[in-house]
Design a protein that fits this description.
The complex is a heterodimer of chains A (187) and B (412). By secondary structure, chain A is α+β, with helices and mostly antiparallel strands. Chain A has 6 helices and 6 strands. Classes of the chains: A alpha+beta (187), B mainly alpha (412). One iron/sulfur cluster binds next to helix 4 of chain A.
Chain lengths: 187, 412
């Protein structure tokens, strides 16, 4: 076959020489490599006692965000459900009544918001689609469970703790420094 | 009590049955070398394979059909699941196909960033393939040593896109976010340490007599037959044809890079191993060149990570929260309501194991009218029965892993 380019370089396929034919020298060479590894630092970690840190932009379990005053941010615009390639999100919108301003940030809110974690492929497109900074993927991985039903996360499962009443739990759930921008991953 | 044991002479064959000289053996779908998803029905004469019949479709997920109902950006997660050993290449290939259709020109820096990611993916793909050839030949250790470096590459992906295997990395028009410092430090660490690990893998396998005798002459294919089947990528190059999409139809500024195309002679497992081995070294050199080129950008150019295409690339989040125009674009893009040109495009990239092509027909609607993935594994698998015929059963397993048959890609 003639060459198609001038970048062609045949690989080195030399037949076995005498030492390689003897078989043992090569085996010893291999043994030395494995022995050296015996004294190297272990690459494994002792899960679950030890856990590796995820990156700040890790796409884990979803969280529904609240604003600083503890109001739900989601306005049930449906963009996340539309952007979801796995069709994992369903929601029902409702109108905010008078006197609920401390609960919902916008005039329309999600009365029901469900994510089916068995359908979800953790692609992160919902987070990207949300125009209200309401849904984002946290640094936790979805836990295992026994029943299929338990994987349909309702709004109550997804909502982040209230920053006004439980500031510590909120900070922990968010896992972010103040003013950190999740989407750019800047620290 | 009756004696229950059945005596062979008492077994009665049904009327009209013929006694066979060969044994039928199912290699797969639950054989570990077939990943639990493809089946080979082998006719065996002792240890020799008389004929082989391949079956596909165990994990067919109808991606091409699914894609007809999805806006372009939602198809990226589907491409993750083709060749999952190198999903970033699939993602990038898909983005480039869209960009070709939408006529988006990318800044050089984005091209180079893509090249870094694609070459990293190629390395992980090849290192899995090569070390698994070792595993199938009975050498498990090398696999574990190089796996640590795949881990490092995955950490790099994780910093950029937030996931490790099913990456969904990049967007149409660029990247979702700029590479942060952790990415660059991890990349430097990888460039620094990986050649040593590769050296170890070579030390364990390359000139080892057992490995050589197991792989030399196993599953060979001639250049002619390979071309007739439509082989591409490392498997074709191992047969002696120096065809590489990166050189013949350069994309993403591959023309700016210097690298050689390693070729084999006989197209057997050993040649494929050597070709992949050399390609990893070439990829490392490409990454080094790209990294250097990226560092040469100064000023505002050094921060570019996407093309300036407000019609297709999502506006910044801060703007979406505060500015009306950005919000409108945001809605339009997410809902897939931006204008799509009509037309047909074919774009191919050098995937982890061959020419990965995307053939996209758009009728101007919000989703593709038709999308076809040219999946190299599917093509290699057609040749499987021919190249294993007459060989030993153990060679068939090694051939399967050295062709790098990945079921996700084969079945789409
Ligand atoms: S992460 Fe992806 S699949 Fe999961 S809910 Fe969000 S958009 Fe849907
Ligand atoms: S989570 Fe965001 S995208 Fe989804 S409905 Fe609520 S506001 Fe809209």
């Amino acid at each position: 076959m003639q060459s198609l380019t001038n970048r062609n370089k045949p690989v080195d396929r030399a037949p076995m020489n005498f030492w390689e034919r003897l078989y043992l020298p090569e085996i010893f060479k291999g043994m030395i490599i494995t022995l050296r590894h015996l004294f190297k630092r272990k690459a494994t970690i002792q899960y679950p006692e030890q856990k590796r840190e995820f990156s700040r932009v890790w796409r884990g379990l979803h969280v529904l965000n609240r604003d600083e005053e503890g109001r739900e941010r989601c306005t049930a615009c449906g963009l996340c459900a539309l952007a979801c390639p796995a069709e994992a999100i369903t929601m029902e919108a409702a109108e905010r009544e008078l006197g609920e301003e401390n609960l919902y940030r916008e005039e329309k809110y999600a009365a029901k918001y469900e994510i089916n974690m068995l359908r979800c492929i953790f692609c992160g497109l919902c987070e990207e689609a949300c125009p209200k900074d309401a849904v984002y993927l946290s640094e936790t991985v979805a836990p295992a469970d026994y029943a299929r039903k338990k994987f349909i996360y309702t709004k109550e499962d997804l909502l982040i703790p209230n920053p006004v009443t439980e500031p510590e739990a909120y900070a922990k759930a968010k896992g972010l420094e103040p003013n950190e921008n999740r989407l750019t991953g800047k620290r | 009590m009756q004696h229950l044991e059945i005596q062979p002479q008492n077994i009665k064959l049904p009327e009209g049955s013929i006694e066979k000289q060969t044994t039928t053996l199912n290699l797969g779908p639950t054989h570990p070398a077939t990943h639990g998803v493809f089946q080979n029905i082998l006719e065996m004469d002792g240890e020799r394979i008389v004929s082989a019949e391949q079956t596909v479709g165990y994990i067919h997920r109808a991606f091409e059909k699914l894609a007809e109902r999805r806006p372009l950006y939602q198809i990226t997660p589907l491409t993750d699941r083709l060749n999952y050993c190198s999903s970033p290449i699939n993602n990038m290939g898909w983005h480039m196909t869209c960009e070709k259709l939408l006529r988006i020109q990318l800044p050089k820096r984005v091209d180079y960033m893509r090249i870094i990611i694609m070459e990293l993916a190629r390395i992980t793909d090849h290192l899995i393939c090569n070390s698994v050839v070792g595993v199938d030949a009975g050498a498990f250790t090398g696999f574990l040593y190089v796996m640590q470096y795949r881990e490092l590459v995955y950490e790099i992906y994780e910093e950029i896109c937030g996931a490790r295997l099913t990456t969904n990395i990049g967007r149409i028009g660029g990247f979702e976010r700029n590479f942060n410092n952790t990415v660059w430090t991890k990349l430097e660490k990888f460039l620094d340490e990986y050649p040593k690990a590769l050296g170890e893998l070579d030390g364990l396998l390359l000139r080892n007599r057992i490995f050589m005798e197991r792989t030399i002459g196993a599953g060979p294919i001639s250049a002619d037959r390979a071309l007739n089947y439509g082989f591409t990528g490392p498997n074709l190059r191992a047969a002696g044809v120096d065809y590489d999409v990166r050189v013949h139809t350069p994309y993403s500024s591959y023309e700016d890079f210097d690298f050689i195309i390693p070729t084999g002679k006989t197209g057997d497992c050993y040649d494929r191993f050597l070709v992949r081995d050399e390609e990893m070294k070439q990829s490392l050199s490409i990454i080094r060149q790209a990294y250097q080129k990226i560092q040469e950008f100064k000023g505002p150019e050094a921060e570019v990570f996407h093309a300036d295409v407000p019609e297709y690339y999502l506006p910044k989040k801060e703007d979406v929260y505060t500015k009306m125009e950005a919000l409108i674009w945001h809605f339009k893009i997410i809902m897939g309501e931006v204008e799509m040109p009509k037309g047909e495009v074919y774009h191919c990239v050098e995937g982890g194991n061959g020419e990965l092509g995307f053939y996209l027909i758009s009728d101007g609607g919000r989703t593709p009218y038709r999308l076809h993935f040219r999946r190299p594994c599917f093509i290699y698998y057609q040749a499987y029965s021919e190249i294993t015929k007459g060989s030993m059963l153990s060679d068939a397993v090694i051939t399967m892993s050295s062709l790098n048959l990945i079921a996700g890609e084969m079945d789409a």
